[in-house]
Amino acid sequence: MAKQPSKNGVHAERAPKPKNRIAAAEADIEAAEAEDHADESVGEENGKEAASNGRKPRRATAQSMAASQRDISVSEFFAKNRHLLGFDNPRKALLTTIKEAVDNSLDACEEAGILPEIWVHVEQTGPNRFKVGVQDNGPGILKKQIPLIFGKLLYGSKFHRLRMSRGQQGIGISAAGMYGVLTTGKPVKIVSKISPKKPAHYYEIKIDTKKNLPEILNGKGEGVDIPPNEAGRQYIEKHGIEWVEIDHGTRVTIELEGKYLRGRGSVDEYLEQTAIANPHVRIHYQDPESGSGQTEEKLYDRSTDQLPREPKEIKPHPYGIELGMLVAMLSDARGQTLSQFLTSSFSKVSSAVASKVCQTAGVGTRTSTAKVGRNEADKLFQALRETRIAPPSTDCISPIGEELLLKGLHQVVPGEFYVAATRPPAVYRGNPFQIEVALAYGGMSSANKVPFDVLEDLLEETDARTLRQFLTTTFYGLGSDAADQIIKEADLSPRTSASKMKPAEVKKLHEAMRNVNLESGQTMNVLRYANRVPLQFQPAACAITQTVMGTNWRSYGLSQSRGSLPTGPVTIMVHMASVWVPFTSESKEAIASYPEIQKELRLGLQSAGRKLGMYLRRRLKVKQEGERRNIFLRYLGEVATAVSDINNADRKKLYEQLLLVAKKKTATADAKFNERGEFVDPAEIELEKDPSVLIVEKPSEFGIKEKAKGNGQETS
Amino acid sequence: MAKRPRKTVATNNGDAKKAAVNLSDRDKKTLRDLVSLADRIVLDADKKRDPYLDIPARTLSNIKYNKTKRFLEMGSNSNRRQLFNLSQAKVYMQSLLVASGSKRLIDEGKTTSLRGLYYMLKHSIEGTKEETFDDQTQSDTIIEDMEVTLNSMREELHLYAKNAGSMVGPITLTDTGDEIDCSRMGSGGYSIPSIVEPEVVQFGKCTAKFILHVEKDTVWRRFNEDKFWKTHNCILTHGGGQPPRGVRRMLYRLHNELKLPVYCLLDNDPWGYYIYSVLKQGSINLAYESKRMAIPDAKFLGIRSRDYERCELSPSVKINLNDTDIKRAKQIAAYPWFEHKKPWQKEIEQMLKNGFKLEVESLISKDISYVTEVYTPERLKEQDWLD
Questions:
Q1: A635 contacts in chain B (CB < 8 Å)
Q2: In this complex, is the C-beta atom of A671 within 8 Å of any C-beta atom belonging to chain B?
Q3: DSSP string of A204-234?
Q4: Mean pLDDT within A483-491
Q5: Which terminus of chain A has a lower count of CB atoms within 10 Å, N or C?
Q6: Are residues A335 and A401 in the same domain?
Q7: What's the domain count of chain A?
């Protein structure tokens, strides 16, 4: 992702070719600055470059080529390359649309300090058509801003500042709208209300892909105010926009070509995972089947009323900028001295640091920024790199926090042991970031508890050709081994067509899924988050998955083959919070592997892993100790009877005495274990008191196990 | 073993009243030993100690070859068997079950077979599906353990093995009061019981001059059919492979009380060698019984490694040695009681060189009665045997 800093600064003065600019857009502020003038500048630059390249006319002359060279708008570019934004297939398009809308809503609510409440409504309108409505209780959007936000690519509030937020580039929701218009021809419908006193405003917008400008269709290009009375309600009804009456908020409705499937990478999954990472959010969800009365509205309720701490906006850190960006900033800062410029534009640059930088670069601190030329800028850039500058302040990041991580995970993922670890903030390329890890151990796999009717639906909907494929792709943490086990148990052929199963076969499958113990065949379920947004695709390309796989989980009591995910009933969620999350593509599916990020990820995973290891070791010990005592107890009765048969001793008394010896024996075994593993045991006692750990006691299967455990605690 | 006479007497009185069984002196001694074993466990439990049994080790490492007595003796090593040891808990329990089973048999004045005791003690442990014994080999091993622990023989525990081995010849004996003439036993012969102690079997008239012991039933039948014992005036026995203790004890008594030399006709393979070794010096597993069973003067008549050539046998009777045979042969050659006997070393070497073994039955390839009419008489006449 790192953009190569130009060697001589020549390119920096000129805007790069449009294609480059877009590819680099998400990392490079300069590109966005230039974007505002895109319309007039791009054409020129393009022409110039082509002319200078076309020195050897062969098949075409410079003139003839120039005739076909023309402006490419960002919108056009994305219309052709929709996969870059996550619209590669109908199923993903539906998800991406909802995701962008929800992310925007959450950002808006949090920024305004409102506890978010989101309504998500998906409705099937045709064979491959869906109408998606997402409403929030946010502050609403000013009338004049609505068209730009929803109808212009690369327009937004979040790109130009360094502040932790879900959205970053201002591409998402407008791209979703564009996709909708492209596939169904239906405009994007927006209703927004900013206060109870003002009427809600209604716009129907289309994006002009050539000009990258919104085109307002209703109210003669002005939009319509919806009156807050019965007439207004009828109006809403007529236009197919279900507005939930609230004091303020925004609802966007997009109709698009899509496909609704449950399972991995689905809308349901996205909302569930969002609920885990955002315990302060309430989501009302109506899936496409709720319209036909098959399912109720689903509610993901909040588990806390506490809004996350408001992230502060920070100035860029000198280590994070590039030469081109520096040049642009210099030209923006008209009339300032260099010292003023440096201290006011960057974080952590004091006047002392500024003078040191100027000294290293060989320019005066009082030089006007206007007089700084190409060479000086280069020197200044090098000097900024070389000077020791304190890392950026990290209060701009608002992590979820260990307590809420535990709450969120516990509410959604059933298990017996939970641990969370929030790493202290760190910095990559001048951008502060923070890694959080939460882990749940135990509980049933989703495959174990799937209800029969849902399984039927899933089988009906699936794309998978074989049953084996269906199982591994539909259920999280269900590896091919486990799938084979289930199929064997159900006495079906692995090549059975998933969608053509007979009812009796489905019944057998369901039975098998319930009965097969998937604990060993399960692979770790990795939930990835960036700024509280779940990442559902491209796990292999993501730094999180790579680091999880690269961590040695065997030392924490899980089994793992080299270079793959560990197995066991484990769900791990990893959250990266940053002012700028380095995604590998615009569709925001995978985090790029910066060494600093990988290091923090590793440390976070290890911290959670260590506690899991302690828990598992203790569990194993309790189990072994229990089994040990169990074996003794089992034979004590026989021994007592045999002895009293031989010498007429009091059987009951003897048995009780032997029982005491047995307890003493196993207790001393504990003590020995403790001495040998001095390091292990004190920490294990602390495990209970550790605020980052949550242990859910389940009623023990064997009475003896419980007894053994109680005893162990007495002695320790 | 610590004795507590007072308690022992009381217990015996109580039992005697209940069962009204006349206990022999040996029974009383065994009961005393059993009770003191149980008493020690009660004492240990009372003192919150970990109860254990010290069981003399029945392994090669705990065997001494007594050169003057010329048989195997058991050393003084023992293995401790603890109740509170995961790998021993079950065996410990089984040991006590066997002890209590034996106590019951003695109290009631009855005996039972090894298999009978297995069934007597086999039940599922309370509250589980686990059985006290999974198969008879488990209880058989523990019976041997208890024999050495209590220093009592199997018959003293009122246990016997199934009959294996027959005998025929010019001898009369009394078995539990019944007179038996071993020269009139038909084709099956007298089945040697598991317990042949003087209380059970008494010898009568005997005109035999020696004993010929053969390895198994099939060979024995050949000799009996040909009336070898009549023509050569001997007692003919077999032990069904590795001879059980009853057969060995019978041979021992015949040899020692009637002064009859013992000749063995066994297969030419490591197993045949070891059968001879057990008859002569006693077995490693039951070394504590050697003094009552070993016959150091027993002779190995055949078959010999050189018989393939000497008797011009057909090549089809050769059985190739396998890896186990070779390993076992080397083991046997290294036993201290074989180590210094040059003829034996040569014999084993020869077999290994041949690369094949020979069964007694292989002589049949010469003639059906070759073994009884030519081979054995010749060997005896020439005094051609191994010692």
A1: 83, 89-90, 92-93, 125
A2: no
A3: EEEEETTTTEEEE-SGGGT-EEEPSSHHHHH
A4: 81
A5: C
A6: no
A7: 5
Interface contacts (A, B; CB < 8 Å) = 86
The residue type of B48 is: K
Q: Is the pLDDT of residue A704 over 60?
A: no
Q: Measure CA A596 to chain center.
A: 19
Nearest alpha carbon to residue B180 among B243, B228, B250: B250
Catalytic residue among B92, B118, B119, B375: B119
How sure is the predictor about A46, in pLDDT bands with cuts at 50, 70 and 90? very low
Mean pLDDT, residues A629-636 taken together: 79
- Is residue A243 domain-shared with residue A112, that is, in the same domain? yes
Contact: B41, A643; criterion CB under 8 Å: yes
Q: In chain A, what is the straight-line distance between the N-terminal and C-terminal CA atoms, in Å?
A: 53
Same structural domain for residues A590 and A634?
Answer: yes
CB of B16 within 8 Å of any CB in chain A? no
Contact B371, B379 (CB under 8 A): no
Which residues from chain B sit within 8 angstroms of residue A639, using beta carbons? 41, 83, 92-93, 96
Interface of B with A in 91-120 (CB under 8 A): 92-93, 96-97, 99-100, 103-104
Residues B94 and B205 in one domain: no
Name the domain boundary from B123, B138, B160: B160
Please report whether residue A480 resides in a domain.
yes
From B41, which residue of chain A is nearest by alpha-carbon distance? A643
What are phi and psi for residue B322, nearest 5 degrees? -100, 180
Name the residue range of residue A468's domain: 452-515
ipTM above 0.85, yes or no: no
Residue B187 and residue A558: Cα distance in Å, rounded? 70
Q: Which residue positions in chain B have pLDDT lower than 70?
A: 1-20
Closest Cβ–Cβ partner in A637, A646, A654 for B34: A646
**Are β-strands B262-265 and B210-214 bridged in parallel, bridged antiparallel, or unpaired?**
parallel
Helix, coil or strand: residue B132: coil
Is residue B122 located within the same domain as residue B182? no
How far apart, in Å, are the Cα atoms of B289 and each of A241, B146, B152? 101, 13, 10
Which residues from A are below 8 Å from B84, CB to CB?
A: 632, 661-662, 665
Asked if residue A69 belongs to a domain, the reply is no
Q: Are residues B94 and B132 in the same domain?
A: yes
Share of chain A above pLDDT 70, in %: 80
Same domain, B177 and B320: yes
Q: Classify residue B58: in a domain, yes or no.
A: no
Domain end marker among B135, B160, B185: B160
Q: For residues A84 and A186, state if they share a domain.
A: yes
- The yes-or-no verdict on residue A464 having pLDDT over 90 is no
Task: Specify whether B190 is catalytic.
Answer: no
For residues B114 and B143, state if they share a domain.
Answer: yes
Q: Which tokens go with B376?
A: 């054995």
> Domain of B201: which CATH number?
3.40.1360.10
Partners of A642 on chain B (C-beta within 8 Å) are 38, 93, 96-97, 99-100
CATH, residue B144: 1.10.10.10
Are the Cβ atoms of B100 and A648 closer than 8 angstroms?
A: no
Top-ranked range on mean pLDDT: pick from A164-178, A188-202, A514-528: A188-202
pLDDT for B80-97, tens place per residue? 888 888 788 888 999 999
Q: Residues A640, A571: one domain?
A: yes
Q: Are A408 and A541 part of one and the same domain?
A: yes
Is pLDDT above 50 for A50? no
A436 close to A424: Cβ distance less than 8 angstroms:
no
Q: For residue A415, what pLDDT is reported?
A: 80
* Residue A120 placed within a domain: yes
Q: Let me know: does B90 contact B314? Beta carbons within 8 Å.
A: no
B251 in any annotated domain: yes
Distances (CA, A) of A667 to A42, A614, A631, B46, B265: 80, 20, 15, 18, 60
